[in-house]
Amino acid sequence: MGTSVKDIVIPSNAPKSLLLLKHADYIVSYGEKKDDYEYVMTEYLRMNGMYWGLTSLALVGHLDKMNRSEVIEFVLKCQQDCGGFSCSIGHDPHLLSTLSAIQILTLYDAVESVNTDAVVRWIKSLQQTDGSFYGDKWGEVDTRFSFCAVACLALLGRLDEINVDKAVEFVVSCMNFDGAFGCRPGSESHSGQVYCCVGMLSLAGRLHHVNADQLGWWLCERQLPSGGLNGRPEKLPDVCYSWWVLASLKIIGRLHWIDKNKLVEFILACQDEETGGFADRPGDMVDPFHTLFGLAGLSLLGDTTVKAVNPVLCMPEELLKKSKIQFQYL
Amino acid sequence: MSECNVDDAASNEAWVPFKDRPEWRDLKPIPQDDGPDPVVQIAYSEQFREVYDYFRAIIAADEKSERALSLTKEAAELNPANYSVWNYRRNILQELNKDLKEELKYISQVIEDNPKNYQVWHHRRVIVEWLEDVTDELKFTEKILKEDAKNYHAWQHRQWCIQQFSLWDQELDYVDRLLKEDLRNNSAWNQRHFIIKNTTGYTDEIIKKELKYSQDFIRKAPNNESAWNYMKGVLQERKLFDFPGVLEFCHELYSKQIRSPFLIACMIDCYEEMLELGKPKKEETLQKATQLCNELAEEHDTLRREYWQYIARSLASKYGADVSGDS
Ligand SMILES: [Zn+2]
């Protein structure tokens, strides 16, 4: 058995500089292609997709390219009687789409245009006695939903409405022997879940529960020789995982532990020079999800042509500065 | 936070348009409301459009019928990630009091075709919960894990079943088989920890057994992150020195010219513990640990140079002053 590592090789002709304007064009044209198969197939992700696209535009300073009132109108139509938001008109409410909705409204400084009391009531109703959160009435439990609930309430300035102690207790119970986190107690560590747990603890001001040196090492072990980061041992590197790992490291004050230059090189190589946008890996198809996390990653790595991004909420920092949200960092 | 990929819808050649189905004549389809921007010419497949137009109409009419049930099947086949379809399907299943065993068979097929989809696994979990019957679950997840031994959803479901229905007995054997097939399977190592923690717990006796178990695997592949993490996890609540042999084990590998960063990291941990416990020869121990950190930073793990330099610095600041006082 050798010591070979699952990884990719960056092609020599891959992009080496940031194609800032192309990405704005890509996002704008994606929203216009409503006849595309891909667009229709992702209806169940529409609210998340709009958050990815709009935040990408905001990070490159082109939020004005989208029609503010149309977006807000769409979000309003997705608020259900129970208070939660669905991913699209006529779908069921879910915490994942609710966080995206609140983030979009925050981007546009329009949170007050929805019934915030109803959202808060609905989120409260999803908390269980062990502190965990259901994603919707069907009862799936996942630390992603703990993050969504706490992030929504923080954005609404209503964090005190839930039992934060219990919520923290549940998230901490998902910490594993390797120092990282999974989606339920005993679930395998996964960098997407680490991001949610660390982000949640930051908003709750309870990062002292984290063993920052051990977790930091696990996170920086995610970097592969290509420079990209993976989500778990023996998995391929991916732009979105690069963001989850990077943001988590930033929150626990250990971003400098990875090789930044190599990661920048990897993320830049995932751009499509013709269409704009980022893919998961060099040469793959681009999409708005990886485009946001590519841009946000570069921002955390110090690229000043992209606006400063907040590592906990993945939104422009300048926008959150105006709010009263408390972020804890180590 | 969300799936990376969107699965392609299955093509279905024998599909009959709804306008040619007499049993649907009474229902008026509702087109998709696309949100912002004026709706442009819709060019995606006629089938997709029609199925979802009728699905919207069914929901709007709150119709829970046999034809609605079969419509959700068509809609799910075209886009199994659409959670609203599954939610509504479950509403119908309850209302019509359908045979849930049949549903389990059906969702098995869907999961086999879409094993990395959150919604289909969630549907399965709810059905198993309703049935309170877990007979097929271990076999089923095993089948899925045979295709992809690290499928996160399959492991989630398996852990839920094991915990909910106390199926602990055979699980360590299964994990053992998986690790023999692929000793880098991090999911299997995690499962091993999950099982032991929830059954016997890590008693002294079990720890000794598990140290040997993981060390045997490490000898076969010394750069296996998962096995090293597991070995250290076993000792999480204890001291490395409560179980002599860890540092000796490391020395054995090191003397064979093995320079895996995980091996060296474990040696550094041992030295750090010795310093922490105030063992004799402080100065020498600190020097050894620092030397190893430098080796990693400069040679064996340059990608993480900053990390190893940090470890060296923090050891020096914690134990360095004391050492100079000693001498
Ligand atoms: Zn990805």
From TrEMBL, chain A:
Cofactor notes: Binds 1 zinc ion per subunit.
Catalytic function, reaction form: geranylgeranyl diphosphate + L-cysteinyl-[protein] = S-geranylgeranyl-L-cysteinyl-[protein] + diphosphate
Residue intervals passing through the bilayer: none
EC identifiers of the protein: 2.5.1.60
Cofactors demanded by this protein: Zn(2+)
Listed Pfam families: Prenyltrans
SUPFAM superfamilies in UniProt: Terpenoid cyclases/Protein prenyltransferases (SSF48239)
GO cellular component, one term: Rab-protein geranylgeranyltransferase complex
Assembly with partners or alone: Heterotrimer composed of RABGGTA, RABGGTB and CHM; within this trimer, RABGGTA and RABGGTB form the catalytic component B, while CHM (component A) mediates peptide substrate binding. The Rab GGTase dimer (RGGT) interacts with CHM (component A) prior to Rab protein binding; the association is stabilized by geranylgeranyl pyrophosphate (GGpp). The CHM:RGGT:Rab complex is destabilized by GGpp. Interaction of RABGGTB with prenylated PTP4A2 precludes its association with RABGGTA and inhibits enzyme activity. Interacts with CHODL.
Function per UniProt: Catalyzes the transfer of a geranylgeranyl moiety from geranylgeranyl diphosphate to both cysteines of proteins with the C-terminal sequence -XXCC, -XCXC and -CCXX. Catalyzes the transfer of a geranylgeranyl moiety from geranylgeranyl diphosphate to both cysteines of Rab proteins with the C-terminal sequence -XXCC, -XCXC and -CCXX, such as RAB1A, RAB3A, RAB5A and RAB7A.
Family as reported in the entry's similarity comment: Belongs to the protein prenyltransferase subunit beta family.
Protein name: Geranylgeranyl transferase type-2 subunit beta
Automatic annotation (TrEMBL), chain B:
Parts of the chain that traverse the membrane: none
Keywords, comma-separated and alphabetical: Acetylation, Coiled coil, Magnesium, Prenyltransferase, Repeat, Transferase
Enzyme Commission number(s): 2.5.1.58, 2.5.1.59
Coiled coil: 279-306
Catalytic activity as recorded in UniProt: geranylgeranyl diphosphate + L-cysteinyl-[protein] = S-geranylgeranyl-L-cysteinyl-[protein] + diphosphate; L-cysteinyl-[protein] + (2E,6E)-farnesyl diphosphate = S-(2E,6E)-farnesyl-L-cysteinyl-[protein] + diphosphate
GO cellular component annotations of the record: CAAX-protein geranylgeranyltransferase complex; protein farnesyltransferase complex
SUPFAM superfamilies noted in UniProt: Protein prenylyltransferase
EC class: transferase
CC cofactor: Mg(2+)
GO molecular function, one term: CAAX-protein geranylgeranyltransferase activity
Pfam families assigned to the protein according to its UniProt record, in alphabetical order: PPTA
Keyword Magnesium: yes
Family: Belongs to the protein prenyltransferase subunit alpha family.
Subunit structure and binding partners: Heterodimer of FNTA and FNTB (farnesyltransferase). Heterodimer of FNTA and PGGT1B (geranylgeranyltransferase).
Function: Essential subunit of both the farnesyltransferase and the geranylgeranyltransferase complex. Contributes to the transfer of a farnesyl or geranylgeranyl moiety from farnesyl or geranylgeranyl diphosphate to a cysteine at the fourth position from the C-terminus of several proteins having the C-terminal sequence Cys-aliphatic-aliphatic-X. May positively regulate neuromuscular junction development downstream of MUSK via its function in RAC1 prenylation and activation.
Name of protein: Protein farnesyltransferase/geranylgeranyltransferase type-1 subunit alpha
Organism (species): Biomphalaria glabrata
Gene name linked to the record: LOC106071577
